[in-house]
Design brief:
alpha/beta; Rossmann fold; 8-stranded mixed β-sheet
Amino acid sequence: MSTGFDLKSAAESMGEAVAEMNQTDKINFEAKQAGTDTRDDSTDSAVDEIASPPLRHGRAHAKDGRPKKPKAESKLATVVRQWLDNVLPTLPDPSPWAVGSVSLMDRNTETLVAQAPKRWVVYEPMVLLPTGSFSTRAEISVSRTETSSARLLTSPAPLGWPDLLAAVSREQQDQLWRGILLALSPKGASGVRHAQLTHLAVNEGIPPQNVQGGDNENILRSPTGLRPLYGDFGPAATLAGGPPTDADFERAFWVSTKQNGLYQTWAPRWSMFSRGNIKEKARLLAWSRTACEETTGAWAVDLYAGIGYFVFSYAQRGLRVLGWELNPWSAEALRRGAVRNGWSVRVVRRDVDLARPTAEAVFSGRYFDEGNSAKTVDKDKHDKPPVIVIFVEDNQHAARRLSGELQAFTASLPAALSAETFGPVVHVNCGLLPTSRPTWQIAWAAIVGGADRETSTAPRTGWMHLHDNVGVEELASRQAEIQALVTAWAGEVAETRQCICTAVVEHVEQVKTFAPGVWHCVFDVRITI
């Protein structure tokens, strides 16, 4: 039985995902050559960090017994050390940098370098540092030998980056930030570095609750913990204090990266990016095509579209895509990324446009005259409908739009046109963590809906990709639970329509660790009807 997943293609695509690097990836690759990659993809955050080389101490030994040369400091550590050498002597005395008559400058330098970030990631033109960078506070014990006796006098001295940054001027701080950006910028053809990286920030993660909303859940996944250090990241509030407008989008700071040959764009102040999804994107790109997918008009649906993580994988394979996304900033990021990748795209976000019949937003490019009001939601200059359509609304509306309006619209068309409109849905992605369970039945209906209208007697296959957080010891039981659920749904369809309908959980993909002992899993459900 085919699983729908081509292992050979997957291996090739995964190899490309690792080997393919844009200028940003080359910078990170250079860093990793000097040390091990300690990337941690265990949690979703504003971004996931890539390791830069840790500072190595001590003398390791080769097999022949000769001591190995210590590995070079990272570019960031070198900049920090040089900055400290220039700044520490300028601090007033007495200060935390001296105890009595004994200078602690050397000890302070080593301690502060050790507390500096060991990792970073580049998303042009931004460098993002991991959580806690340049905010560490520590206390050390400083020993000195008194000349009158051999005993040691120990004096505690508060030491940490917050103390130091509070003691220096803003210009001195900016010198450090500019130095880091310059050191991490790529070299030009002449071998000279130019300040191509212009923004520096610390990733403080995605808070589970809205900061200003008390205990209400942060369902938009807004990275409100982002801590800008250098550069203009755009306004922290919209012009009207409500949903963003086109003017707000233009005022925002946008960054981009390239994965699996596809660009993704987002505004780091307003929406998240999870680098750890790269393997799952590659897996979907390598998915073997079914007979239904080869037919004209096959579709994919993403019920949690985000900035286009999986939407772009489907579009790259030649599918048309419908998506739902609550965060208008993520939807705009998806639009910008789609345009950069060369796809036509339409984002339906204004109330007046969301209230229109779904077919107007999805098919207005072909099936309505120029004078039709649906053109107000069509920003494209193409005659054809867009490849990607995103609705900025709760995905619970997807059931009405997919199983109701679009299927009814297609059924009303002549047979010659019906195959070119809302054809079979061959993939539905439910990519929310910790669980996407509230949308599973919507996904099921999108796959099986409309099957009774088809004239072909050949079976049709579609896939649901159900994301869930699962404990390591619960993988088998969760798979059995989902299997029982979809088996029951298939039985209901078979009885109602007097047809054969089967559903099998054919694969469980462990994408990445979400927390100790917990995996972000994707359950691939194969539906045949």
